[in-house]
């Protein structure tokens, strides 16, 4: 087993007034040659967007973009004709593929929105762009990890999917729980990101926004403390 620890305090930061961001990997004006990506996981941004502010219309290409609001709501509009609002408890997937333009703006004029924006490098280039969103809170099983995103060919009706051999899982733990994560492929790695609470893995203790990347193993044992929310992202490492 190999691992890399990313304490929350080592992330890149940016404060634009309307946007306060924490970058797990090199992004925008933050560059660290040792923090470019974890396997096919290229971006994990922890964003705070002020009321009525947001990201104006801008292009993307050949990237799988996953947005998970943590509080508040975000208005989405794109060049495919999709328009709507995603809120805390939802997940949004946009496959940029051959090219798409979109905007994301705080839906509230009084409350900030907090969100994770995650980019996964795609398995194929220039696929047809697509958009999907879904309420995921009702799907989560308390004190267990629940897979919320799968590869396209592994998805069944109603499953959220992306164009990569990647899996996203969320866990809400209200009691202390010893558990394990079984990788879907021995050549994958897994990025454990503690949204809040405390998780112990392989003699490492992770707290709010700490992360641990692990690879060259097929199963990972972990212990979650009460009041913990955990995001697990499994990706190919090559």
UniProtKB/TrEMBL annotation:
Short name of one Pfam family: Pirin
Signal peptide: none
Protein's name in the database: Pirin family protein
Taxonomic lineage from the root: Bacteria, Pseudomonadati, Bacteroidota, Flavobacteriia, Flavobacteriales
Transmembrane segments annotated in the record for this chain: none
Species annotation: Patiriisocius hiemis
Start and end residues of each Quercetin 2,3-dioxygenase C-terminal cupin domain: 155-235
Domain of life: Bacteria
Protein family: Belongs to the pirin family.
PANTHER family per UniProt: QUERCETIN 2,3-DIOXYGENASE (PTHR43212:SF3)
Domain Pirin N-terminal: 13-120
CDD domains: cupin_Yhhw_N
